[in-house]
Amino acid sequence: MHDIKSIRDNPQAFDAALKRRGLAPVSAALLAIDEKRRAAILASEQAQARRNSASKEIGEAKKAKDEARAAKLMAEVAELKTTMPELDQAAKVADEELANDLAAIPNLPLPAPEVPDGTDEHGNRQRHVFGQARNYGFAPKAHDDLGGELGLMDFETAAKLSGARFVVLKKKLARLERAIGQFMLDLHTNEHGYSEINPPLLVRDEVMYGTGQLPKFRDDQFRTSRLADVDDIRPHLRDVAREFEAKINREGFLGNKEELRKTYLQFAQEKLEPWLGQRLDLSEGAPNVALQKEISLWLIPTAEVSLTNLVRESIVDEKQLPMRVTALTPCFRAEAGAAGRDTRGMIRQHQFNKVELVSITTPETSKDELERMLACAEEVLRQLDLHYRVMTLCSGDMGFSAQKTYDIEVWLPGQGDGGAYREISSCSVCGDFQARRMDARYRASDGKPRFVHTLNGSGTAVGRALIAVMETYQQQGGSIAIPDVLQPYMGGLKLIEHEK
Question: Which CATH class is domain 121-222+300-496?
Fold first, then answer.
């Protein structure tokens, strides 16, 4: 999320940064909405201030026995009471319009040459290379051919269970994938200083919004749903009660306790009905109504979502930073925009396992943390002795929430005509972009709260690491050698071969 004040202060710089993303200028439209919003807020505040002032003047007029003036003031207060909800609603509508427009705008890239200019993957720059492609005395096979011939990778049965882009791994190949994930976790927790987390896989709308998946990439996600129950309503009732209390404190109430109770029930009914999407009667003796509200939770597309949101709506002490957390989780992606791409094998799946790295830092340390995170992800591939390259993504090829991104692309000898590089990790610094969406801050040494900076990276994708190990370590005849660092996780097994 962008800071409208920053856009207000330098609209030309904002539009210039968007141009590097390949986007049209929007600052003028945003500032027009902002002006309308500020005017509506000012009108609402002025009306509230005048109502408070007039209410005091009524008491003074009655004390002075000036009934005519008191009556005139009471009429003014009554009119304000009628118009104030309209003014509040106008301010709310303008605020929501601005928030919705800002929510759809991606993060701005860091200045060139730190982030090179470019429109797509062709503008990315190679940073460095590790290792080299191996020479085989035979034509290397793709992982799906290897797995199928071993009888350990079954796409046909997976399609019967779940449709396209799923796989069933069996026996030693299933254990190898588990070993890869466990190796990664152990490396990051024991040697790289990350704390292991076991997070929820199902999250709310606001959590997906916080890291930038919603609203723009709704169609790329998997969503679950169920009907609401009383446990879902309780938090909303607490919010309604707090809002009602603030309203009474602000406007006052002259009735008795019974009248106050009835007023609250009417207020709660008016607030809850739009959320529930159905008529709700909270009056005494009213019959119970079956709830029809659908509650949705999203399957995480990456553990970045759960891990980054651990600090949402909070202020952490600066001494707790940097926070470094990692998790091995299943990930779920609808891949709505990938129709017809990578339809063969495990390259692009709806469900896959990934080890995620997330760091929460101060603004001053986030760039250095990105370099550290990249090194941690690279170390996985180095210990597996896999050939790879690191690319600095150009301004037009970065993800929605990123300021700067490094992609690690591993060499897969069985892909394409003679092998190909494929992404296995992406490490990004997001600045305060996600923090603003999550309201995640830290308290600095001067006592002032500031937005944290967030970073995320794959440490790495387990399924693609499995592909890389299979294709890199394949032997003539179709068996697969186990890398040295994985053998302890495989019970000492050194070779996966055809069962006799």
Answer: alpha beta
